[in-house]
Amino acid sequence: MAKEKIAVMTSGGDAPGMNAAIRSVVRSAINMGFDVLGIKRGYNGLLNRDVVDMNLRSVSDIITRGGTVIYTARSEEFKQLEYQKQAADYCRELNIVGVVVIGGDGSYRGARALSNQGINCIGIPGTIDNDIACTDYTIGFDTAMNTALEMVDKIRDTAASHDRCSVVEVMGRNCGDIALQTGIACGATAILIPEVPHDLEKDVIAKIEATRSTGKKHFIVIVAEGIGGVEDMAKYIQVRTGIDSRATILGHVQRGGSPTLRDRVVASQMGHKAVELLSQGIGNRVISLKDNKIVDYDITKALEMKREFDIELFNIAMDISI
Ligand code: ADP
Ligand code: F6P
Prior knowledge:
The chain is of the alpha/beta class. It folds into two domains: 5-140 and 259-304, 3-Layer(aba) Sandwich (Rossmann fold), CATH 3.40.50; 141-255, Phosphofructokinase domain (Rossmann fold), CATH 3.40.50. It is 42% helix and 19% strand. It has eleven helices and eleven strands. The protein has a seven-stranded mixed sheet with strand order 3-2-1-4-5-10-11, with helices on both faces. The chain has a four-stranded parallel sheet with strand order 7-8-6-9, sandwiched between helices. Helix 4 (105-116) links the parallel strand 4 and strand 5 (120-125). The protein starts with a strand and ends with a helix. It binds adenosine-5'-diphosphate (ADP) and 6-O-phosphono-beta-D-fructofuranose (F6P). Adenosine-5'-diphosphate binds at residues 11-13, 42-43, 74-75, 78-79, 103-107, 109-110, 113, 127.
């Protein structure tokens, strides 16, 4: 009789560390006696019958690489019940008993839909945004922050040389975590994030003026993607303060590159845990990092959780950016 199979896919936006998670899933599953398939380009791979055999060596040398070797995509079709049924039938045809879905909240909804059609699915948080409520950490966040930090450090060199203000937009969709952490680490004068309402005069102009009065001559303002408008902001700062100002949108550079140690280790732990659950016949769960422990939750409960914003960290940032 053919061996039971476990399949793995990446879905939604790519994130550094996804390959480390794929590698962990493939090797853990083989260790536990399963054959493994890679589903290409997220849920599209199940609809287009685009899968590939994975073995111990097909995941060699990928732990160091950004992106995802099995590609990723968004699939509008898969949101419809008829396509979810079609995908589940295809899984049964291939003897797939479990699917690991690496992605964000949207991908979790897909995993729940497929679980409802009788195919056990486990979600793993893979997104640079760190915006998934049920977990303290999402794979890719550390690499993205460190990339953003490296870029802002370079921007500071030129801002300092010209006595300028640099207004830098970092990614994160509606989540300010990349902006907050990068802002602290780069020594930003102001940090604007969606979680905390701001007043441009009080939180940016007045802060620049206050630090200028103590001798500061160049300034970094970090703006989360969810706030945006950095071009206009730079112009406004220049008009109000007379300081030559420039805007930079870091963009997709933050999504690429070799994953950091943290992303590789967390991805390896989560991949292993996901396969462990599937091997016990458990599905419809997501893996999370909570208080430094790898845990799992029911998908619906996970999707209902509310994110807790670290206001203490924000207050520290404000206290020391003077
Ligand atoms: P992310 O996983 O990063 O949040 P998306 O929100 O784009 O990214 O979702 C990724 C994919 O997950 C979608 O393109 C779709 O294929 C699937 N998906 C999202 N929401 C649902 C849903 N309600 N039902 C079924 N599949 C969904
Ligand atoms: O979710 C990751 C992310 O990079 C967000 O930070 C950003 O808003 C979005 O994806 C960009 O998506 P796309 O690559 O489709 O432009």
